[in-house]
Amino acid sequence: MGKIAIITDTDASLSNEIAKQMGVYLVPIVINFGNESYKVGGEIDDKKLFQLIDKHGDLPSTAAPSPGDFTKAFQKAFDDGADEIICICVASTISATYSAALLAKDHFEGKQIHIIDSRTLTMGQGFMVKQAVEMVRLGASAQEIITELESYVERLHIFASLATLKYLAMGGRVSSIQAGMADTLNIKPILTVKDGKLEMLEKIRTTKKSYARMIEVLIESIGDKKIQKIGIMHVVNPEGVQKVQELLFEKMELPVQIEVVEFTPGLSVHGGLGFVGVVALTE
Questions:
Q1: Distance from C-alpha of 274 to C-alpha of 267, rounded to nearest angstrom
Q2: Predicted model pTM
């Protein structure tokens, strides 16, 4: 059986260090502040992102990797000895990343390149990447890996708490009046993922109550299913991570370790400073 390489984009919330350890090729999302561009992973992280937002007084735009970026990644994988490639992309409903990867594939006629629309984001996508790497290690075929990953969409449970509506207002997704009123009333929206997009689920007063409710809806969503993997993603909010961890251990029986990751700038620009979310993969 030939060697299979795994490629993904930085919206999978995998650090460069973790990707390198797993042998995964990371293709970066790009953050643009006017004429200044930064590649996620190597040139900008969540902390720097919000320092720049404060400096500029405006949100940046985000750009999917170009077909050329994926072409370089595919070529590097083949040069390193890969016979096949599985490329796992952030949901096509929120990014042109998947389309860019498909265009890049056209440059490799006769090569086995499988482009996967994860239909999810952040740690959900990251869990897919880690599963693919493990299955490659165990000798699975590309089709066996793809079949397993296709089951993830229905098995992923993703919920999050926004610390503020300020950044949604800056991006034009809510009015500044709505954001100001929400912050005045200490409203912390609960989000979930539908069709690969973050969508508002409920509005809860106070951070403490929003964290508690986030765990409640996670438990309701999981039901009697067993958890295979669970993680917390955040945007420069280690205190929030600690509180959510405590709630998870208090409210749930967890057979696995809780993974913690940065949301990463391509997504954090939408979630905002202080964002905390939970992701669970069930059997």
A1: 13
A2: 0.91
